[in-house]
Write a structure and sequence with these properties.
Distance between the termini: 41 Å
Length: about 300
């Protein structure tokens, strides 16, 4: 008797909709067939007796936890690439400083990552957005439309994954990942994220809140406009109307502080009549930040 094992992943599949509970999926939705080399010999296995097990053996044995005595022997002779259903393990030093950290999972396809036994989450950078539909302008006002303010065209749904510094050891850390589809971990890196310019927008009646990281303070207002500003972060432009007090209000509220908040109302910006359909857009600079100062550490075994 022969056994056939099928790995089924639910992440990324439709999980809502009319009569969703009545839709056949997986083996039940089939068909599952064995097709001979001559394509004439076909065996339908859809109605065969199947057993079902949730999770992976590696997860049950806690391969992801470096402190758990699971008895696994890691192969250090060579690192396979492009091989599905593969566990990888390596170590890296804790980056200096207090800035936020992120894993850049370039080269991987789909799977799960852990740092020192703590789950960073599932990844799927090969899920790429449509290349069309993005624009340099953005305006959410009016009736909703899914085509508005589209960004990230042609880019992965997510490439960078936050790593809490509370997960790290003082010196060496263990990074483990499970690659489902067959990727290349040689380009995976730990990056220190240094924020220079920060942008924010807020509509009338709401509160705009911004803050710098790592104890830095706001040193410069690169753009501030309450009215109908156009564009996006890095390329904001004044619209057809704006309050002439926009920059002054933002400077008084934010300069020299590590965070600030502004109530977006017409009275805040000195508008006596009208102005209730406005939007506030700002671009600020956190003191001492350099957008090119991101420190990168490759994660390699």
């Amino acid at each position: 008797m022969d056994n056939i094992l099928v790995h089924n992943g639910a992440v990324g599949h439709a999980n809502y909709g009319a009569f969703f509970d009545l839709q056949d999926t997986g083996i039940v939705g089939g068909p599952v067939k064995l097709i001979g080399s001559d394509s004439n010999n076909i065996i339908d296995l859809s109605t065969s007796t199947w057993s079902y097990k949730v999770g992976l053996n590696g997860e049950a044995k806690r391969f992801y936890d470096p402190k758990f005595p699971n008895g696994v022997q890691w192969n250090t002779n060579s690192v396979p690439t492009g091989r599905p259903m593969t566990w990888y393990k390596t170590t890296f030093k804790s980056p200096e400083g207090t800035e936020s950290l992120a894993l850049d999972l370039e080269g991987l396809r789909k799977g799960h990552t852990w740092v020192n036994g703590k789950s960073i989450g599932r990844y799927w950078p090969t899920m790429v957005a449509d290349k069309n539909g993005c624009s340099d302008t953005c305006d959410y006002r009016g009736n909703y439309g899914s085509e508005r303010c589209v960004s990230g065209c042609g880019e992965p749904s997510q490439r960078f994954y936050h790593v809490s510094r509370s997960f790290l050891n003082n010196d060496t850390n263990t990074f483990i990942l499970f690659e489902e589809m067959g990727g290349n971990p040689s380009n995976v890196s730990v990056q220190t994220i240094t924020v220079g310019s920060i942008c924010a927008t807020a509509d009338y009646g709401s509160t705009l809140e911004v803050n710098c990281q790592g104890g830095k303070t706001i040193s410069e207002i690169r753009f501030a406009s309450y009215g109908d500003p156009q564009g996006k972060c890095g390329s904001f432009q004044k619209g057809e109307w704006e309050s002439r007090d926009s920059t002054t209000v933002v400077e008084r509220a934010c300069i020299g502080k590590d965070s600030c908040s502004i109530d977006v109302t017409s009275s805040t910006f000195g508008i006596r009549k009208g102005g209730t359909n406005g939007q506030l857009a700002v671009q600020l600079l956190c003191d001492g930040s350099n957008p090119e100062d991101g420190r990168v550490q490759r994660v390699r075994g």
